Amino acid sequence: MEELQRYKAVISYDGSAFSGFQIQPNGRTIQAELEKALAKMHKHHTVKIVGSGRTDAGVHARGQVIHFDSPLQIPTEKWKKGLNALLSDDLVIMDIEKISSDFHARFDASHKTYKYRVYTQKTRDPFRHHFATHYPFSLDLDQVKLAANHLVGTYDFTSFCSAKAEVLNKVRTVSEIKVENKGDEVIFTITGNGFLHNMVRIIVGTLLEVGSGKRKASDMLGILQGRDRQLAGKTAPPQGLYLWQVEYNG
Fold first, then answer.
1. d(Cα 199, Cα 158) in Å, to the nearest integer?
2. Known catalytic residues?
3. Hey, how many other C-beta atoms are within 10 angstroms of the C-beta on 240?
4. Which is nearest to 215 in space by CA: 126, 136, 144, 125?
5. Closest CA to 119 of 180, 58, 210
6. Distance (Å, rounded) from C-alpha 106 to C-alpha 187?
């Protein structure tokens, strides 16, 4: 039996033309594109990849992490060059390294950071349509930051998770939420030990409602304690969201 080497890769993608990360019967996906490229390098033998997490249709990544096993003895730079030659322009291998066989891209992740971009100019910008969310309202960022502070800590985030989520344990730790103003853009940076389905987008959607005066910053505590998706704000659109970085202990 051939000995397998495990590889860890950091990938970036523009999610605009993808139906999400995970393979689906219909629709172009990140996983399918990567496995197709790997199959070509392995003479059409299937090589499965494992991602640090799934992203939805339209969501981008700067630092998604995957792992895969291969019997091929290829230097890591040639892996990177070979795979990138087979991938389309909207999906890129940023880095690749040999890793211990017990490494797991998903289960070993200690922290993830997401960024969410919003722009507030009155008119839509066609050049940002796929990469930021248009929210043409004045935002009180002091109130947004105050509201965000209520969400930092370890809580049951049922209210900030899709009602369709299958996981039973909805307790997560959010270690930081930064809100920055850059020109007409507001950038949310959210770091935690793990995220529920749509959690970042619902947090952002709710914070935007606070910023535009539809809610009070003090409402956040009641929303958390209520553990009811109906209590939180709208789910912000996918195109403003980026999986920015995945961290691992050691």
1. 9
2. 56
3. 28
4. 144
5. 180
6. 26
203-236 pLDDT, tens digit per residue, is 999 999 999 999 999 999 999 999 999 999 999 9
**Three-class SS of the chain:** CCCCEEEEEEEEECHHHCCCCCCCCCCCCHHHHHHHHHHHHCCCCCCCCEECCCCCCCCEEEEEEEEEEECCCCCHHHHHHHHHHHCCCCEEEEEEEEECCCCCCCCCEEEEEEEEEEECCCCCCCCCCCCCEECCCCCCHHHHHHHHHCCCEEEECHHHCCCCCCCCCCEEEEEEEEEEEECCEEEEEEEECCCCCCHHHHHHHHHHHHHCCCCCCCHHHHHHHHCCHHHCCCCCCHHHEEEEEEEECC
**Which pair of structure tokens corresponds to residue 210?**
């606070």
Q: Among candidates 156, 188, 153, which has minimal Cα distance to 173?
A: 153
Whether the Cβ atoms of residue 137 and residue 209 lie closer than 8 Å to each other = no
Rg (C-alpha) for the chain, rounded Å, is: 19
Phi then psi for 125, rounded to 5 degrees?
A: -110, 110
Q: What angle do CA 32, 37, 43 make, to 5 degrees?
A: 120
Question: How remote is the C-alpha of 57 from its chain's centroid?
Answer: 11
Q: What are the pLDDT digits (tens) for 35-44?
A: 999 999 999 8
pLDDT the model gives residue 1: 56
How many Cβ atoms are within 10 Å of 71's Cβ, its own excluded? 12
Please name the amino acid found at residue 205. G
Q: Which two tokens stand for residue 191?
A: 């770091």
Rounded to two decimals, the pTM is: 0.96
